[in-house]
Amino acid sequence: MIITIGRQFGSGGREIGKALAIELGITYYDKELLLLAAQKSGLDQAFLESRDESEKSNLLYSLIMGGTFAAQGCYSVGYMAKQAQYNAVQSVAQKGDCVIVGRCADYILRDYNNLVRVFITAEENDRVEHISKRDRIDSKEARKRMLRTDKERSLYYNCNTDQQWGNAASYDLCINTSMLGVNGTVRLIKSYISEKDK
User: Fold this and answer.
1) What is the pTM of this model?
2) pLDDT digit string, tens, across residues 124-158
3) Does the chain have fewer CB atoms within 10 Å around its N or its C terminus?
4) Residue 64 in contact with residue 77, Cβ under 8 Å?
5) Domain with 121 in it: what CATH number?
């Protein structure tokens, strides 16, 4: 069983993923994928973190790499970072039951039979309040961070899949945590898995 969790920033997706993994007694992966990707690819972990779920582009570097080294089989740093994360997601999925948060895992693992794809959302004001408390910032800064991060995640997902980030058609379950909270959402996902496995 593999559960992937896409999430709006501040909706509680990470907390839900951790709680769900504990409840089900399976492995949880989020930032841990970056360490694995760094170890397997030889890329610097700090570099991978700087590009995590973000479609950043260094135009000059890409032009230099594409123009000078493409014939030698070299690739842009952006491509290498994406490939490292792709390989890390595939690797942990093959190890056994797990919860994977973000990183296009729902799309990367779309051909797995035992996959449950979840998208977590929440009301904007609840998200702002959550971010503000968690990151110890005022609500104005929390809202800016929320909008910026959602934009980055959406762009990253849409550029690296043929699906739309947050579109219900791409997931098995879309849940508003403002209605159920973390514990209620975990119970709902567990119930869905139980019914699905009958």
Assistant:
1) 0.84
2) 999 999 999 999 999 999 999 999 999 999 988 99
3) C
4) no
5) 3.40.50.300
Q: Which helix (H) or strand (E) holds 189?
A: helix 177-196
The parent domain of residue 21 ranges over 2-55+81-196
Query: What DSSP string describes 143-171?
Result: HHHHHHHHHHHHHHHHHHSSS-TT-GGG-
Find out whether 88 and 109 touch, Cβ atoms under 8 Å: no
* Rounded-to-integer distance, Cα 125 and Cα 127, Å: 5
Helix (H, G, I), strand (E, B) or coil at 159: helix
- pLDDT of 63 > 50? The answer is no
Residue 88 placed within a domain:
yes
Residue with token string 């098995």 = 172
| Helices and strands in the chain, H and E counts | 9, 5
Q: How far is Cα of residue 195 from the mean position of the Cα atoms in its chain?
A: 25
In a 3-state reduction of DSSP, which class is residue 36? Answer: helix
* C-alpha–C-alpha distance, residues 15 and 84, integer Å: 25
Residue 171 falls within a domain, yes or no? yes
What's the number of domains the chain is made of?
1
**8 A C-beta contact, residue 168 and residue 117:** no
